[in-house]
Amino acid sequence: MIVLGILLFGLQFLLWKFFLNFLVKVSKNSKNQFDDYLVRNKMMLNLSRLILIYACFPVVELVFSHFEDWISPLEKFFNILLVVGWLMVINSLLRSLRDLFKTQKAFEGKPLNSYLQVINILLVFIGGVVIFTTLTGKSPWAFLTAMGAASAILMLVFKDTILGFVASIQVATNDMVRIGDWIEMPKYGADGDVVEINLNTVKVQNWDKTITTIPTYYLITDSFKNWRGMQDSGGRRIKRAVNIKISSIHYVNSEEIEELKKIKLLAPFIEKRQAEIDRYNSENFPDRSMPVNGRNMTNVGLFRQYIKKYVENHPGVHQNMTLMVRQLSPTELGLPLELYMFSTDINWTTYEDLMSDVFDHLLAAVKFFNLEVFESPASDDIRKLGSFKEFQLS
To answer: Any residues with CB less than 8 A from the CB of 7 and at least 6 apart, and which?
Structure first.
């Protein structure tokens, strides 16, 4: 046994010193990326171990030639090591292929880890059958028959793995989720980018840098939002309203019209619109003593047109996607004027900057149309009201 140990240790030293180091140096000097992946996934190390195991067979027969009772158990032991060694070599090769495919555009976003795990499970099962046959000397069918009898228990034990396997196939086939997709699953507190898709779990890095782990089969059984369509479209939706105080809405008079004509974006529209209104009123409503008779321009209507002209000329607003400024139903919070449009940049910070810039401008511009933005009374408003009542009573 001492002689066997010395021989194997010496062979291992030679393999690692010369064979392994030589292959590592060759891979580093090569322009091919695949051999670098092989080194990273310990392919060379596993190959050297496999060579060492193969070398053990003649050494065992030589050293234990006078101890025949030892040869058969040792050969079984090294046969088992041989199966494990081959499994490790194949696993290293598969992991290297996965790393290579990750660099290919055709496999971008595909759940390659899930595929690798499925293949590994299959390989471990085959290896287990071979090891069972080696130890017992029985046919592999005897093992498979025993497995069939225990299938109910195995299905219970591996329930999550089976569900994850089926879900992974459905997710990949239907292209529901890719690595890098932004998904939302409020039920599980997930709102961020998918960083990893495995056989059993999907890892999502939320915007606060926390990690949420979701069972893969929940992507099939529960609903979630995938923002990939927005990212691929090149535009990010803005849907926000300015609530106008209804009591500030009125018909604009001639003085207000002349003042509003000073706004460069709005002047052409006012002139064209005023000409249409004057022509219509002269034909149908010659008596204009009552403003509700006939057609008139309103300050809120002109403000809505100004908003539309403003965003149509804004370089940060996507002009080839839906763009509109609309009135929503009046509520107890006023009349909402909603902007529905898309930004030209989907980057979150750029998007937020654009939206803030647009609404900064509109909130400042609203007063030039003699309009007011609705806001609930603040505490200082209530105190001022109380002070005014006290002044009246005094």
So the answer is: 59, 63
pLDDT tens for 251-296 read: 999 899 999 999 999 999 999 999 999 898 888 877 777 888 888 9
Q: Is the pLDDT of residue 304 over 70?
A: yes
Q: What tokens appear for 158 in the block?
A: 């591996």
Q: How confident is the model at residue 336 (pLDDT cuts 50, 70, 90)?
A: very high
As a three-state string, the secondary structure of 55-84 is HHHHHHHHHCCCCHHHHHHHHHHHHHHHHH
What the block records as the tokens of 70 is 């030892």
Q: Which two tokens stand for residue 256?
A: 């207000």
Contacts of 44 (CB under 8 A, 6+ apart): 19, 20, 23, 24, 27, 38
Beta strands (DSSP E) in 254-385 are 324-327, 335-343
Phi and psi at residue 195, in whole multiples of 5°?
Answer: -105, -20
- CA–CA separation, 370 and 359 (whole Å): 17
In the sheet that holds 201-206, the strands lie side by side as: 211-215, 201-206, 190-197, 182-185, 225-226
Beta pairing partners, 182: 193
Helix (H, G, I), strand (E, B) or coil at 240: strand
For 224-233, the pLDDT digits (tens) are: 999 888 888 8
pLDDT for res 67: 63
> Does 189 have pLDDT greater than 80?
yes
Contact in structure between 25 and 35 (CB atoms under 8 Å): no
Residues 6+ apart with CB under 8 A from 122: none
At 203, is the secondary structure helix, strand, or coil?
Answer: strand
Residue 283, judged by CB atoms within 10 A of its CB (0-12, 13-18, 19+), counts as exposed
Look at residue 15 in the predicted model and tell me its pLDDT: 65
What pLDDT does 41 receive?
A: 80
Indicate the pLDDT class of residue 149, thresholds 50, 70 and 90: low
What is the residue whose two structure tokens read 């996607």? 321
Which amino acid, one-letter code, is at 343? S
pLDDT of residue 183: 92
pTM (2 d.p.): 0.59
Q: Which amino acid is at 382?
A: I
For the chain, the 3-state helix, strand and coil shares in percent, each to the nearest 5, are: 60, 15, 25
Quick one: which of 320, 327, 311 has its CA closest to 265? Answer: 311
How crowded is residue 159: how many other Cβ atoms within 10 Å of its Cβ? 11
